[in-house]
## 1
Amino acid sequence: MSILGAVLKELFKMFVADLRLTLALLAGVLLVALVLKAALVGPVLGGVLLALVSLAVLAEAVLREARVRRAARIDADRV
């Protein structure tokens, strides 16, 4: 039982660690679900849209983290 608890704890920390990423992904899924529910696109295009939204959110998170690390490295070099 302790292994399951440890896994669940790590999963929770993973999603809470970057709240902006989590909220952006949830918003993207909600947006695609609403578009599909309104029948504005078919299921295949909805899947493609979900993949594109997910990749865009991931790219933004990676670029944001790169900026933070670059700024930290520049600050460390000044010392």
Note: The two ends are 48 Å apart (CA to CA).
## 2
Amino acid sequence: MKNNRSPRRRNTARAKTSASPSSRDGEVLIDDPTSDGEATHLVSHRNARTLLLACGALAREIRALMTQNAWTHLDLICLPAILHNHPARIAPAVRQALTTHQEAYDEVFVVYADCGTGGDLAKVCAEFGVEMVPGPHCYSFYEGTEAFDALEETTAFYLTDFLARQFDAFVWKPLGLEEHPELRDMYFGNYTKLVYQAQTDDPALTQKAQESADRLGLAFERRFTGYGDLAKALAGIAPPRDAS
């Protein structure tokens, strides 16, 4: 997978992070970003030439895929997952991160779908000559974009593994339901079910998702999706030919 721009001379300096990382198998591992703040260098390999610039809500899944497939040609930087709740901020944040980090890599792949940006993120990616995950949002690429479109589920509310873990922080509290639970039906009255798209077989997460459905007064459905089109998109980023 190639950028439209001419190859850049690689700057071997890495952006510093405010955290104190711990080394393991050539990686720098930092806790998943879930709050406002700057981009976090989550995984760094000594000889990586391609950067994954990703949503923090995908950090755990991307790291799992990198480990399972020994993708040591990739580095991972994540933007704060809370941008998930503020789509208008995504494209500017990606622009800033690309401006900061692109020079250090031969290629950058943006691990976001459109995610409510109304095409603004695609414009930023085109401007910088980088590619991104196709599709409208992460629910689509986990399910498989074609399969998701065929479902035509207009009254379903979706949770992923990340959102099952972070339901209070990313759904309940931001909507003010902690202080005003009477607003629940105003927000969710047009939904009929909560669909938990499970990336992993984790009974504890399934229980959390079920409890979230109960709190919202919705029917519950669990669908195991695995990593869906996310895995396919990342597998398509071939390592450089001279990589060891």
Note: Confidence is low (pLDDT under 50) at residues 1-37.
